[in-house]
Amino acid sequence: MELPNIDQVDQEIIRMLLDNGRMSYSRIGELLNLSRVAIQKRVEALVQAGIIENFTIRVNATKLGQSVPVFFEVEVEPRHAESVGNALAEEPNVVSIYQMTGPSTLHMHALLKNEPDLEHFLYKKIYALEGVVRVETHLTIRRFKQGTGLEL
User: Fold this and answer.
1) What residue stretches are annotated with the HTH asnC-type domain (predicted)?
2) Could you report the per-residue pLDDT of 70-125, keeping only the tens digit for each?
3) Are 111 and 63 in contact (CB under 8 A)?
4) Longest Cα pair distance anywhere in the chain, in angstroms?
5) What is the DSSP letter of 2?
6) If both were cysteines, with which of 20, 108, 110, 146 could 97 make a disulfide (CB 3.0 to 4.6 Å apart)?
C-alpha cells in the first residue's frame, strides 16, 4: 500500500518500525543507505506531522493474568454517549473504545481476569453508568490477527 503525502523512504521507515519499534535509527539507516541522523530527522518529522502518534509495545495479557478478552457493544442514550465513553475510557481494563454509527453504540475491547471479573465489570462498571441502555458481550475464542491498523 502506498501512502499519500510521504515518500518511499518514509514509508519504509514506518514499515520497519511497525515490524520492530525498537529498531535503532542506525540499523534503519544501514538498511536504507542513509545516516542515523537522516533517519532521526525523518522520524521526528513523521512524529511532528502526526503520522507517527507514539511508540509502544504489545504485551501478552494472558501471561499477566488477563486471560478473558471481551468485546462489548454498549448502547447508550445519545445525550450520555460522551460521558459514558469518557468514563469507560478511564477504566484500566479497557484496551480501546470507539463510538460507532447506529443507535449511539460504543464498541469496547477489555481484558479481564476471569468470569467473576467480567460479571463485576459488566454490572458494577458499565451498567452503573447513567445512560447505558443495553450491553452485548462477546468473549473472544481465538485471535487470528492483531495489528496496528495499518499494514504497509
Assistant:
1) 6-67
2) 999 999 999 999 999 999 999 999 999 999 887 779 999 999 999 999 999 999 99
3) no
4) 57
5) P
6) 108
